[in-house]
Amino acid sequence: MSSALTDRQWLWIAAEFYLVVFLVGTFAQVRGRPHSSVFNYLLMVVGYVCQLMGLYLRGRLVGGCPLGNYFEILQFTAWSATTLYLVIGVTFRSSMLGYFTACLTAALSLVSLSVPAWDATRRTDIFGGNPWIEFHAALALFSYGVFALLALTSLMFLLRNYSLKSKRVGGWFSFLPSILDLDHIGVRLLAAGVTILTVSLAVGAAWWLRKTESVDVLKILATIAVWAAAGTVLGLRLGRKLLAGRFAWTCLVLFAAALLSLWAVNASRHPSSPAATAVVKS
Amino acid sequence: MNEPGLFVFGANHHTAPIAVREKLSLDAESAAALHAELAALPGLREFALVSTCNRIEFYVVAETGEAAARVQAAFCARQRFTIEDFEKFRLSLRGQHAVQHLFEVASGLDSQMLGETEIFGQVKEAYAAAQARRSAGPVLNRVFQKTFQAAKLARTHTAITEGRVSVANVAVELAVNIFGALAGTRVLLLGAGDIGEKTARAFQGRGATGLTVASRRMERAMELATELGAGALPFEQREAKLADFDVVVGSTSAPDLVVSHGATIAAMKRRPDRPLFFIDLALPRDIDPAVAGLQNVFLYNLDDLAKIADRNRAAREAEIAKCRALLTERAAALWQQVLPQIGAMRRPGETSPGASGLSSPDNVSSA
User: Fold this and answer.
1) Quick check: B179 and A178 CB within 8 A?
2) CB-CB under 8 Å, B180 with A181
3) Residue B212: enclosing H or E segment and its boundaries?
4) How far is A21 from chain B (nearest CA, A)?
5) Among A261, B158, B290, B300, which is disulfide-ready with B261 (CB 3.0 to 4.6 Å)?
6) Which domains are assigned to chain B?
7) Which pTM value belongs to this model?
């Protein structure tokens, strides 16, 4: 499949669509009027398709799932969050979820596109042609996308909780879903994120045990720390020890920790095969 | 000041927060005792008491301002308020301004929820009570009867009652913000009064099916429960069973709290992951205000609900102005009619109340 546009051009277009959704939403909130969730959803779909096209082209260029540098990782995380939004956004009252998703994905996409150094070096064939390692990496990043959406629903929970406690329920607060719905979706997203990350780590561990020197200790520690933290938070929530606002705040911190761990993961990446040492200078 | 006149003093939602109003509120027994006490005051010709959740106001016809002040002193003594403290929250008007105020109260223009119609009935009840106790005389009879005419006129000739939102509907909307769909929500109604019943019906209208009524009078609870198709709970079990409910509507006339902070903590330990929503429609309040600080607990009292219900006030400003103009015109006409009656109370040699400017703005204060 050929394209008149480059991968980065598609990704710029996608980021602009996300930005438009965010700006339209912000304008509507400032004016205190509801915005069309159907229209915004369609804009998000268009942005998503553009991002998918950009990532597809990049994937062909690097010979696998595009997770070889910070730019690609952030783009993939944003794409994962949008994927989840498009799936779950229609299942509950979520015009505000679309707004916050657009805000997050626009920020991740634009920041990643605006720092040329993050995409200066493109590594090809980083998974050494091993589809299982590629599957492991894609799943891990997808779980981070789930945590991104969890962070958004947690933020919405905190805003709803604030509005109800402070008795300011009018204006744009009225577009937020109910506090119980937000709590339920938060638990489900966390459970999904932990499950996906667990599968990802299990797949990665199976290959790591065959060749333990292939992965840096820092990467293992960072990944296990995020997984353990997410699992602990889920356990505490299911055990009714971590609830409501504290649970929401913890989920926000969890996402921040997950983002920080990407630095450790990327910085300590070892080529898994000689082919992976090939580098494409942009 | 030492001239005969029509006076109104008291406290309402404009001048006093709910925490003060509940201290000033009178139950039926105290109101009767106060009535008997006031009836014996020298210089007091007529009086009526309008007491609702949002206001306690004395309408007094007295030979002198000092006589009117004695009513205030008697009320403060009964409620264990110093005069100085009371004056911080006091509404005080006289003459035509007092008439105008009663007109605005009865028409719903002065209500916390603009345009509400329940106040009309409450003013009628206050007048009926004054008549029954023979404390209403020629001046108050005329003023109250004209008040009812003016209120009806305001409601039919302006759109002041349109666009209003009831406390019950606001409470239900808040519950939706907390629980989403209300189909599985369990509601406990404390008290079997009118406002509680309306709120319960509003919940049922939005799909809430698990409704239980608890009242200090079990037979009344059973009666209302049957009407609503709900269950009944012995009132003394309300705190022990608190964890079984998602929404608790407090609407009793109990003089003290009926749901404590401690009982709420105990309930939340049993259901920490499910929110508990208290709607306190009572005055004095039923629910300990401290529960608002608990995680996953939400508490709204009458003032909170009324503020939310009144969000569309700005859009109704034109009707407010139209209604006020209509009432001002009628209040001025009525004042001219009652002025001779009040003037007749003067002792020989005193100037007329109209000439001394009873209705001048100088005679208005709202601390």
Assistant:
1) yes
2) yes
3) strand B210-214
4) 25
5) B290
6) 5-162+314-366 (3.30.460.30), 167-310 (3.40.50.720)
7) 0.77
